[in-house]
Design brief:
The chain has one domain. The chain is about 65% helix and about 0% strand. It is built from eight helices and no strands.
């Protein structure tokens, strides 16, 4: 297990670079496709261990942020923030990622790192969205 923890694929900077790269290629169609995957997202949430409830809340926030952009109810969002949110949600939904989610104890580490990066990168916009919606930011941010 220690070898896995030192795996270079788990390099936070590499995952950050991946999200940034993926975000640069997000299109309007990609945004719509993510919004259409709500049922798949809900199914994946059921598989996430309870101890990672904050991760689930964060992904739900990213999804809602994207959906609000698409339905026009919240447009005060720079495109790069939407694209970053889409890249993070797509990574979370990916059936095959760096660490298979089914591995107990470590399967969601990469997902956690990707979502954490997205929340850091677009945190100002997400906090503004939370304020707009009247959400308690402590549910999503440390």
């Amino acid at each position: 297990m220690e070898e896995r923890a030192n795996d270079p694929r788990l390099d936070e900077e590499a995952l950050k670079a991946r999200v940034q790269r993926d975000a640069k290629h997000v299109t309007d169609d990609d945004v719509r496709r993510v919004v259409s995957r709500r049922r798949e997202l809900d199914e994946k949430f059921k598989k996430v261990p309870d101890k990672l409830n904050k991760l689930v809340n964060q992904v739900k926030l990213l999804y809602e942020f994207i959906r609000s952009y698409i339905d026009g109810s919240y447009r005060e969002i720079p495109w790069i923030s939407i694209a970053t949110a889409v890249a993070a949600v797509v990574y979370f939904l990916a059936p095959v990622d760096l660490i298979p989610d089914m591995i107990p104890g470590i399967g969601y580490i990469d997902d956690l790192l990707v979502v954490r990066f997205a929340l850091t990168a677009i945190g100002t916009d997400l906090r503004a969205y939370c304020e707009f919606k009247g959400y308690d930011v402590s549910k999503y941010f440390d």
